[in-house]
Every structure is written in C-alpha cells, then in structure tokens.
C-alpha cells in the first residue's frame, strides 16, 4: 500500500511563493489503480513527482508497503532511484540512442540479474505489451503508441512496488488513446500492480481507475470510486469537471430527512434532487445538477403532480450516432439533453422533460 | 575537399579568380616623385626649401608608417605638427619588419597608401626597388663619425640609431662578476642565466661583422651548450631580468634599461667593455607617393634640430647631437647590410646550434 | 509575391550563402593555395603565370623540423584538449546540472575570464610559476625549502596555461548541449533505479555525443592554432609547435609567403580530416533530435552533501582560471614596474597606470569603443550567417548542402597571420576602400570566427525536430519568417553563446587586428600589443583589469535584464 500524508510542495518565483501541492493525503491499496484527476496546474503532477522522488516535498510523509520513503519530521528522503518504482512519462522519454530491447533491459541491468535472466525478463515485459517482435528496432523507428508501450514495458520490467503514470496518453490521437487506456487497465489488473495515474482527461480517469482523486489548486476536492464520483459528486467542481452537467441555480426549500431528497426553488420551477452531502439547510443557495442522459421525454400529458418537469423549445439538435443531443431553451436557461437515436427533436419543437429526483444532485453553490 | 588543379576547367577558374583579384602588373618607369627629386637636386637650398613647403602646403597631407613605439611616435609627430601645421599626418605604427612588409604588399599590388616609412637599415634590401632616390642637403648635419651612414645610392635618410649589447641585473651580479666580453657568455659560471631573443638578423650580422663566420659558429656552439634562455619579446625579457628572473641579457636594447634605471631605479647595468651593435634607423620615401613634396619635407625634418633633440631625450641615438650616456671608448659596431645568402646561413647556424641544442 | 521569386525561398538562401562563403572563404583560400604553388610573391610579374611548382611543399615537408613540430603540436594539443575537456566537463556538469551552491557566481567568473588578453594571462603565469621570480615558487621555497618547485617554462607549463585558457570554451559549448537535453530522459533512467553516475554514463553522455564531439574537435584545433602560449613559453621551454615554426621561418623580411601558405595548406588538410571524422561520427544525427518545441531547463541532480565538494572543486578550478591571473593583474596594475611582492613594492603602489591609460581618450578609450563596435557587428553578422548555414545544412534537403558546412568551417585551419595577410592582399588588389577602416577588420573577423560560432549553433540546430518547421509551413508561414520566428528562438542558447563568444574574441584577436590596423581603426587588441611590445606591463595589467570589469558588468547586466524581461521559467 502506498500512503501519502499531508504532502506540501511550493515553488518560488521571483516575486512570490506558489503552493503547488497543499496538504494532500491519500492511500493507494495494493493492486489498485488510483488516479489524480484535475485541470492543468492543479498540482497532480507535482504530487506524482514528489512520490517518485524527482521532487522533494516541503513537508509530509510518503510510505510504501510499510517502508518510509519520505518523512519531513525525520528528515528522511529516499532518492528516486532507491524507491523501487516504475514511471511512464508523457513524452515517453524513450532513449533515442538505444534499441527497443536495450531500453527495457536498461531497467534490469545493474541489479544483480544474470544476463540470461535479464533477457528473459526483458522479453517477458515486451511480450506483455506485444512488442517482442520489435526488440531489435531502434527506438526512434516506432510509432507514438509503440513508443509508449516500450515505456510501459520498461517501467514494468523491474517489477516495481508501484508504477507511476504521468499523463501517459495525452500525446496520442483519440482512437489510440482509447485503445491504450484499455490496454493499461488490462495490464494493471492482470499483473495486479499498484498504480498511480495522473491525467486531466476525465473519461480516461473514469475508464481506468479503481479510485479517483479530484484535485484543484493543489488541494484534494473529493475522492471516490468512478461510479460514485460520476453519479454522486459532492462538489460542484466535480460535477462540472466530470462528464456533462446541466447546472440550474436555486434555493433550498426543504430536505427530506430520511431520503435526503431536497426540494429546490429554481427559475424553472420547483425541482427535486439528491443532497449528496446530507447537510443542506433550507434557504441555502445551491445548484441542481442533472446529466443530459438522465433527462427523458415526458409522456404527452405532463403529470401535474410530478414536480421534476422542464419544458422548452429545441434550439439545436445534433445526431451523434448512438444518441441525439439536443439543446433546449427553457426560459433563459439552456438545457442539454440526450435521447435515443430515433428521437424526433427538430429545431423549434416544444418538449417536456422529466427526471428522477435520485438522478439529480443538489450541491452547495460555490462562493464566487 | 581536394586541391588538385590538373583539370583544365578548374585551372582556368582559379586563374580567372586571380586575374580578377590582381589586375595587370604595373610597368616600371621613373615616377613623378623621382623626377621631382631629380629636379630639386639642382636648386639652391633656400629655393629648394620654399618649393618643398609650397608643394607640401598644396598637398596638405602625408601617410606615414613609423616604427617607433606609439607613445614616442606620437610625441615625435607633435613636434612635427608644431613646425608644419599645414601637413595633416595619418600615422600607422608597425615594427620595422612589418612596415617593410606593408610597403612591399602595397607596392606589388599597385595601391599606394603609404608615403614615408621609417625602418631599420637592415630591411632596406627588401624594399629597395620601391623607394625613391632622394638626395638631400640635410645629410650634411650628420656628425662626422656618422657620415658613413649616408647611403651612396641615396635610397634612405638615416636619422637615429639604437644600440644593442650585453647587460645585467645589478641585484644578482656584482660588477666584478659580470661578463666583460661576448666570449665570456660561454663561461660555465653563466650557465642557464643568459637570455637572448629568438634569432634576430641584426644581432647575428652584428656578431658576424667583428667575429667572422668561423669564430661565430664556435661561439654559437658554446652558447648553445650553456643552456641559453631564448625568449621572445625584448621589452618583456628586460622586465623579467630586472625582476630577477635571470641575471644577464645577451642582446637587448640598452636604452630601454637605461630609461628604466632612470625612472624606476631599476637594477640595470650595461657592459660597455663588450662590442655594442649600432643599427641606424632610416626614413624612406615610396617612389609612387602622390604627395612627394610633403614626403620630402618630412624626411628632411627627421634630421632637424627639434627632431634630433627629442631623439636624444628619449635615449635613441641622435645622429647630429652627442650621446647622453654612451662612454667615449665604447666599442661600437655598425651593423652592415649584407647579402641574403649570408643571412640565411647565419640563421641556420643559430637554429642548429642554439635553438636545437640539447 | 513577385514572379521572379524562386519557387523555394530556401534555394534563394542557399544562393546567397554560397555567394557570401565564396567571397569570404573561397577567394582568400584560392589566394593561399595559389601562393603555395608559386615561387613569386602575389602581385609580382609571373605570379599569374601557369607554371606551378611543388617547390614550397618540398621545402616544408622535406624538412625534419616540420615533422618534429607536427609531433610536438599533436602532443601539446592532445594533452591540453584532454585536460580542458575533463575539467570543463566537470564544471559544466556541476554548475549546470547539479545543485552545487554558488553555481551562478562561479560560472559568471569563469565566462568573464574569456576577455582577459592571452598575453596578459601568459605573463601572469610567468610571474606566478617561473623559476626564480615565480610567487608560488618562493612561497613553496619559504614553506618547504624546495627551490623552483614549478617551472612554467616546460611542456607541462604550456599545457597547463593552454588548458586553463580553453576551459571556458568547453563550458560554453557543453552548456548549449545541456539546454538541448530533455530532462525526462534522465528521469526515466533514475526511475529505473539507475544511479546518477550510471545515468550520466549511459544516457546523458551518449545523447550529448554530437556536442561533445564538436567540442573536442574545436578544442583540439584551437590548441593546434594557439600562438601566444607556444611563442612566449614554448620558445624558452624548447617546445616548437606548428605556429611557432611558421613564425620563426617567416620572421625575416620579406616574409616567405610561399612557405607560410604551404604550412596553412598542411594545416587545412589536417583540419579537413578531423572534420570528416567528426561528420562521420555524428552521421546518425536524427537519433538525437529530442527537442519537441520546448526550451529545456536542465535537470539538476541533488548531490546531497557532495554538493559542497563539487562547489569547492569548482571554485578551486575557477580560482586558477580567473582568480589567479586577475589577482596578479590587479597587483601589477598598481606598480610602476614589475617586482615580486615585498614591503617596498606595496608601499610604491599607486593609481598612476589607470590615470595614464584614460587621460588621453585616443589612447585607450577610442580603441575600446572601436572594439565594441567591431565586436557587435562581427558577432551579429557571424551569428546570422552560421544560423542560416546550420539551418540549410541540417533542415533542408538541398543537394550539396554539406559543402556549406565544410566551407564555413574550413577557415579554422588558417592561422591568423596567414588569414590576415590574405585579407590585406585581397583588399590591396580589389579596389574597395576598406583598408585602414574598421570594415576590413570586421570582414576578416567574420571569416575567422565563423567556424567556432558554427559549432555552437549547429549543435543546437541538430536537436530541433523538423516537424516544428513543417507545422509552421502548414500554417502558411514563409521560410524567412520561419527562420526568424521558429528556429532562431529555438536555438537561442546556441545563438547567444555564439554571439557572446565572437563578441569577446573580437576584443582579443590580436594578429589579424595588428596586420590590418591603420591610424583610424585601432582596436583594444592593438593597444594591448603596443603596451606589451614597449614593456608597459603595469599599464597593460590596468587595461586588462578594466576590460575584465567591463565584461563582468555587461554579463551581470544581461542577467538582470533577462530576469526582468525574460520569460518566466515554467516548471
């Protein structure tokens, strides 16, 4: 298990000191994949580099499998090359003067393996990424995706205690990125490796992780499993950063103390949603967040007793293949929704939408 | 990249480039300056002087290469300017050999950018073909003992001389322990403490003129075995000796040490009992000068009273005034002009016996 | 765009460069080659005749002295290069690539040293380590009773001074290489568990190989070509190298141009050979293209406690390179005549040398201004030329582009004395009114400094990935804009190093300035020679101190400016 406790890291510029990482703590359970997700500049890469040992945190504690790697109170700092971790870089960092084989074997040489053993382990690692036939190629004669596989094989070869991914897919094109993330997830589960993954791509994070940590401005906003994070965000930033959300401002009227369904007064009328934080008080300013795919077309006659109904006219609709996306103007509010591909949503058509109260979340509005 | 030029096309290309660069060689005939100077010889002194001054005033400028050091050259020119303010002088400072080289380069290229050059008389043969024949009455001002320095062929006007000889550091050697003659420098007592410049034609020709070749070879041989210090830079070597680096100098300008003794109380003493080589410095006129009047006026001025006074004050040997420190009985040897073959031979003796001595 | 414009503007660039190189390099070279094949001097009747002769070659190569000098030159250059590279490499690593304390200040002093005139450095070392009057020797004698422990007048003395002389160059060349290195490549190695040392050996050094090879080549040729140390020390040490042989054999008027040209040709052949080896070694340069649009900030390794050792060692080396000569200069500059330190010497100290130096502006101030002008002009012209040449050679597919590289580099083989003569002859014969002006000095300096500057920029250019230009071309940017807005900023480190190097060496280069100087174009180097040749070491020292301080102030200022206006360095 990898434990990170209260890590802080700041950088000095000519005029001020900027906190890149401010008091970040989390655990990565053995054999699990944890993702640090956030927009650029949120401190996720700095956190990763502190764990790798490439940067030295200002304070905090890092422990792997009971072994302290960094402890500011004990003035302990294990250098990067002694931490026994593997790392995959955004720019691949494949050594251009070596062949594919040499790149991978480098991680094993000098660790007391016999040469036959090095060869076996190298080919084993190459086989895991399906590159065993490319062993003799100069590393620069590979495509971007292949280079990233080499980087993964290199990080795997030494059987590290944990493997760190620093936005490994952001230099690849969309299709390849999707393939590679499946591949990384497969490998991680197959080997049962402990992994820490850094990305700014929420889809990637959802697809690949056992656990996600959302970061912003050096702080952890919230964490949880992908489903939980997606379905039940506790923070408005999460709701808007992950997936798509319609955010409807309003004021809490009441909260049901047993179901935690909150009634919210919005400019679209009274709407109900789930209070994920279970602590909203009447009168608080909130946002009601509803995902486009959770909106469905109401039957011809709107049930007057159902409060979760929105009506408006179609502003634009786009056929996306599997679904149709439509934007409705409901008063002054623009609402995005998704329907099945056979839906008839021509521009200008009046629609009534409805959603289950459990599908929407009510989150405390941020003070701007 | 290859440098073969056996193919016709390449060869023609190179030639074309050279033709473009060099132009046609010039013809040799009497120049404007030379015919003017021939004419001047016939005039009486006062008319001659007036004609020179009027001509120089009309020409208004002169381009000079002076081989004295910069500070001294500038002092010298300031004196000239006081006398003839109407001649604007642009001056380049170059050593005698480089000055010779420059004049030669300009002359062979047919670009005449220099009118008057001051060089050592030893460098005359190299430029003889390019200097104007100039007979001037100012030569009469030379002291009787220096009359023989005047050139029979009128190619140059001598105006000062420098002396080179043995000297030593008085902190390191007592006068009684100092060498007395050139042969003394071979003594084992002086092993490794005598310094020389890399071979100077003037020095070797000076030694040759009183030793003869056979004795010179023997002398070079024993000097070579006496672990001589051979180091480039006359002024630098003098400073090093006076700072205590070594005790004796086989050849260096004595005036420089005398000046340092006077201004800085330097521990310097010349050896007056050994031969002193005197080498005259001369002024020459480029025969293709476009300013022949100014050139002649300047060359005459070199022997004027004020020019000679400055020369004497700076411890360069004046040719019209008595010497400030040279003893009457000093053994002066004037370095003669010799043929090229002898120079080559002397240099190769030095090279074999001194430079490569182990 | 005009219809006379060629289809590919790169061809236009190639044409322009070809013309410039032909004029600046090929023509002077043709003169040297032709002169080496003739008995007649340039301009003499018969010089243009078709009868060429091998007379000069037979004279030069048939002489045992030529071969002895060749051997001495190789030994001198080889050993000096090795030491300079080892120490310079250490400095470059510890100052640029580790968390060594005081790295910035140390590197400032190291680079500032470049401006101190070579003559002054040699004199300083004579006063420090010569037998009899060397301060170090008298210290050792007083402390340990050993007489004349050091002898600067020896092969090793020459090597010592020459190595120290070349360390700043090594440092500058390798700094460029450091900035072109993606730090992630090294981090990847660290993350596999490799030590700092293994990373250095297996990753950093092999990836920097083209720059290292270029640095070695350049150092070696610089040592072969060096003149001041062999002349002032070698003569007394009995070590005769190539340049001093040329000097000795041509030191009687009229200069034997045929022989001098022949030596230059031999030197040229030798350098061409080295250059070919270099090109062969870096033939897979595409393997080293690692820049992806970023200007890298080199990764600094944390050395832990060892950083005090590297800091201490760097300070000691820089103390020898800069501190020792500077302190010596400072001491001498207050004396009226050199004397070893003593109570009497200290009591006689005064500022008279500084006063004398600057009381007459014609004497030192105008030449300093001239040198500044020449330096800025030369550096700017050279940098634009070599950047264009490296671009053409490395980033285009124009046929025969390698020739540009050879040509621009070839003039390194010509000793300054020969190059100066070639330019003087050339402009005596070509009726352009440049003799006696700063223009002729600038023209000659451009040819002289192109080779070194070219190595700086081409090491940087080699690492720029061509897709950057392709991206710009797709965006419809013209080649010219591309060059100025894409390439120049990307190879900024190399360009700045080259500019600085040329600028400073324009101040120092003596031989050429001396040969081409007239009444109106005296440069600082000529002042130095005037002072040296008239034995005014004390004034010379004062001049050296002033030049050094000016340069340190300029570098400090540029640091401040780039901090204030420069781009903030990102994480």
What can you see in these coordinates?
The complex is a heterotrimer of chains A (368), B (358) and C (571). By secondary structure, chain A is an alpha+beta fold. Chain A is built from eight helices and 21 strands. In chain A, the strands form four sheets. In chain A, strands 7-8-9-3-10-11 form a six-stranded mixed sheet, sandwiched between helices. In chain A, strand 17 and strand 18 (323-330) form a beta hairpin. In chain A, helix 3 (115-128) packs across helix 4 (144-157). Chain A is globular. Chain B folds into two domains: 2-21 and 29-161 and 278-328, 3-Layer(aba) Sandwich (D-Maltodextrin-Binding Protein, domain 2); 162-277 and 333-355, D-Maltodextrin-Binding Protein, domain 2, CATH 3.40.190. In chain B, strands 1, 2, 3, 4, 5, 6, 7, 8, 9, 10 and 11 form an eleven-stranded mixed sheet that branches. In chain B, helix 3 (45-59) crosses helix 10 and helix 7 (201-225) runs parallel beside helix 12 (340-355). Chain B is globular, with a radius of gyration of 23 Å. Mean pLDDT of chain B is 87; it is low at 1-28. In chain C, helix 1 packs across helix 13, helix 8 runs antiparallel to helix 9 and helix 17 (365-395) runs antiparallel to helix 18. At the B-C interface, helix 1, strand 2, helix 5, strand 6 and helix 8 of B face helix 1, helix 5, helix 11, helix 19 and helix 25 of C.
List the defining traits of the structure above.
heterotrimer, A: 368 residues, alpha+beta, 6-stranded mixed β-sheet, 21 strands, B: 358 residues, alpha/beta, D-Maltodextrin-Binding Protein, domain 2, 2 domains, 11-stranded mixed β-sheet, 12 helices, 42% helix, globular, disordered N terminus
